[in-house]
Amino acid sequence: MESAIKTLVTTFISSSKGKENLDSKGFKNLVEKQFSSILEDANSADKVKEMQQGLDANADGKVSFGEYLTLVGYLAQSMSDRKTAAAAQSD
Amino acid sequence: MPSELETAMESLIKVFHRYASKEGRSGTLSRRELRELMENELSNFLRSQKDPAAVDKIMKDLDTNGDGQVDFEEFVSLVVGLSIACEQCYKMHLKKMGNM
């Protein structure tokens, strides 16, 4: 579990190249590279832009580490729900 | 082929459900399950699992709906909190190494 948390952190840091926030390009690259198998919209520029705006709680046009964690948490939640639903079905 | 980040998320989900299914309501962590998870999975990040009062406090902080259990959404807050702490630590480390 600790290594998973490290991955969450280092993925953001390497995408933002050590900067505080991800700009639009950095965010787009991260989504394409990391979420292409769980997000259908990962390769649609418009959808990614929409997603970025949705996350941008402080409306500064960038994605902060906290805003990125919101996305990760949201996706993890829906993956977990799907898993629970699948388990309930097979019972 | 899942990415590194997807694999990490998958493993967080698996860890949660592994402990959550141990006793009582499956799908949520009881206090004991949370303590076991912290003991076994977070032994390098956290020392507070050894202190019953600290476990109680973490449990209380996480349990936003006050049902005495930690559901997945509440568990995500723990992951977010640890990630933020880990990020700050990592940045300090980079600064010390002179890379930033």
From TrEMBL, chain A:
PANTHER family: S100 CALCIUM-BINDING PROTEIN, S100 CALCIUM-BINDING PROTEIN U-RELATED. Keywords: Calcium, Metal-binding. The gene is si:ch211-105c13.3. GO terms for molecular function: calcium ion binding; calcium-dependent protein binding. The keyword Metal-binding applies. Residues 43-78 form the EF-hand domain. This is Protein S100-A16-like. The keyword Ribosomal protein does not apply. SMART domains: S_100 (SM01394). InterPro entries: EF-hand-dom_pair, EF_Hand_1_Ca_BS, EF_hand_dom, S100_Ca-bd_sub. GO terms for cellular component: extracellular space; perinuclear region of cytoplasm.
From TrEMBL, chain B:
The keyword Calcium applies. Residues 50-85 form the EF-hand domain. Signal peptide: none annotated. Coiled coil: none annotated. It comes from the Eukaryota. Keywords: Calcium, Metal-binding, Repeat. GO terms for cellular component: cytoplasm; extracellular space. The keyword Repeat applies. InterPro entries: EF-hand-dom_pair, EF_Hand_1_Ca_BS, EF_hand_dom, S100/CaBP7/8-like_CS, S100_Ca-bd_sub. GO terms for molecular function: calcium ion binding; calcium-dependent protein binding. This is Protein S100. It comes from Gouania willdenowi (Blunt-snouted clingfish). The gene is LOC114472196.
